[in-house]
Write a structure and sequence with these properties.
The chain is α/β, with parallel strands linked by helices. It has 13 helices and 13 strands. The protein starts with a helix and ends with a helix.
C-alpha cells in the first residue's frame, strides 16, 4: 500500500513538473476563458478597440496571461486584474474587476490616491464663497448624498444669492446618474442648436436580458418597453438608445442670465457621470464664460456607460463592463483613458484638506473669475 501511495505521489509530481495542469489550474483557466468570452461578446467598446489598431496587442496580452495561468505561474485574481487593467488603463475607466488586488495593486498605477496626500473626503456644499461667488460641491451622482432634490435646491439658492459667478466642484465624484445635472446644465449651456450625443447599446442577449430585468422592476417605464422592442426587432449589433425624432430633444432649454462666469473643478477622481458635466461644458459652453479648472485630468470614463456586472463561475470574482458608448468612440475617436484635460491647470499645491470647507483652490478660482468679470 505504501508503495502504491508513493508511486501515485511520484506520478502527480511528475505531471506537475511536466506542465500538466492540475484541477485548480484548469478551473482558473475556465474562469479566465469565461471572462474573455463574456467581454468579447458583450463589452460595448471591444469591437472598436480591436478594429482601430489594437488587435495584435490584445491577442498578445490575452495569450500571455492565459499561458502564465495555465502553467500555474499566476492565479486567477492576478490574471483577471491584468486582463481588466489593459482595458481600464488604456481605453475605458469603467471596465474593471472588483477585488482588493485590482484597487490596491493595479489602480494606483493609473490614478492618484488623494487620501494619501491630504485629508480627502469631499462633502456636499452649497454656500457663498464671497459676495461675487457661490459654490456648489457635488461629490457624488448616485442621488443619495447629495440627492437630486438637494442639487436642484442648491441651484435655486445660487439664483437667489445675488452672486454673479458660480463654482461647481466635482472633485471626488466618481459618477452615478446623469440625471442629477438636469438643474445645472441650463445654467451653463449657451450655444445654439444643442443636440444630445447619440448613445449606442451593444445589442446582445446578455446585455438585453439586463434591461428586461429592469423592465420587470419598472413595468410602467415607457422608454424601457420601447427600447427593448427596438432591440428585439433588429439584427443590428449596435442600437441607438435615443431616437432622432425624440420630441424632448427639440424642446428649448430655459435661459438664465446667471452666471456671468462659471468654473468646474475636477481631479483624477472625477469620473463617469461627473465627467458628463465636464463634457457638456467642453462641447456646449462658451470657453470665455465657463472654464474647467484642475491640477490633473479627469478619471477617463466619459465615453462609455451603463455598466453590467458578471461573476466568474468558480472564483466568484465580479467584473464590470459598459454596455453603452458615445458616438465618438464608435468612430475610433477618444480611444483612451487620458481623461478630460482642464482648461486651466492649477499651479497651487494640493489643498491641505478637502472636506466640507472652502479650500485654497476655491478661493483662488473665485479671485480669478472676479478678475475676468
Amino acid at each position: 500500500m505504501k508503495h502504491l501511495i508513493t508511486l501515485l505521489f511520484i506520478v502527480i509530481t511528475c505531471q506537475s513538473l511536466l506542465g500538466y495542469p492540475t484541477d485548480s489550474v484548469k478551473i482558473n483557466v475556465a474562469d479566465f476563458d469565461f471572462l474573455v468570452s463574456t467581454t468579447e461578446e458583450n463589452y460595448v467598446a471591444y469591437p472598436h478597440i480591436i478594429n482601430n489598431g489594437f488587435n495584435k496587442e490584445y491577442k498578445r496580452m490575452k495569450s500571455a496571461i492565459r499561458s502564465n495561468l495555465k502553467k500555474g505561474k499566476i492565479g486567477i485574481e492576478q490574471a483577471a486584474c491584468e486582463y481588466a487593467f489593459w482595458f481600464f488603463y488604456k481605453f475605458d475607466g469603467h471596465y474593471h474587476v472588483d477585488i482588493p488586488m485590482f484597487w490596491d495593486v493595479y489602480f494606483p498605477k493609473s490614478h492618484i490616491r488623494y487620501r494619501e496626500l491630504f485629508e480627502y473626503a469631499p462633502k456636499a456644499v452649497s454656500c457663498m464663497v464671497d459676495t461675487n461667488t457661490w459654490l456648489i460641491r457635488v461629490p457624488s451622482c448616485e442621488g443619495k448624498d447629495p440627492t437630486f432634490e438637494w442639487v436642484a435646491k442648491a441651484v435655486e439658492q445660487y439664483l437667489n444669492s445675488g452672486c454673479d459667478n458660480l463654482i461647481i466642484d466635482v472633485r471626488g465624484n466618481t459618477g452615478g446618474s446623469d440625471e442629477i445635472w438636469m438643474p445645472v446644465v441650463p445654467l451653463l449651456v449657451d450655444k445654439e442648436n444643442v443636440s444630445p450625443d447619440t448613445i449606442w447599446f451593444r445589442n446582445t442577449k446578455t446585455n438585453l436580458d439586463f434591461f428586461k430585468r429592469q423592465q420587470t422592476n419598472h413595468p410602467d417605464n415607457e422608454w424601457l418597453t420601447s427600447f427593448i422592442t427596438k432591440c428585439e426587432t433588429t439584427s443590428d449589433e449596435f442600437v441607438p438608445t435615443n431616437d432622432e425624432d425624440d420630441e424632448d430633444d427639440d424642446k428649448e432649454m430655459p435661459h438664465f442670465e446667471l452666471p456671468h462666469r462659471a468654473a468646474i473643478i475636477v481631479d483624477k477622481s472625477t469620473g463617469s457621470s461627473a465627467e458628463t458635466l465636464v463634457t457638456v461644458v467642453k462641447r456646449y459652453c462658451n470657453p470665455e464664460r465657463t472654464k474647467i479648472y484642475g491640477k490633473d485630468n479627469t478619471w477617463g470614463a466619459n465615453e462609455t456607460g451603463n455598466q453590467l456586472g458578471a461573476m466568474l463561475p468558480n472564483s466568484k470574482i465580479w467584473f464590470y463592463y459598459p454596455t453603452c458608448g458615445n458616438l465618438s468612440y464608435f468612430q475610433g475617436k477618444n480611444l483612451g483613458t487620458a481623461g478630460i484635460a482642464p482648461d486651466i491647470r492649477i499651479a497651487l499645491p494640493y489643498p491641505t484638506k478637502l472636506t466640507d470647507n472652502i479650500d485654497e483652490w476655491v478661493i483662488w478660482i473665485a479671485s480669478e473669475m472676479k478678475k475676468s468679470s
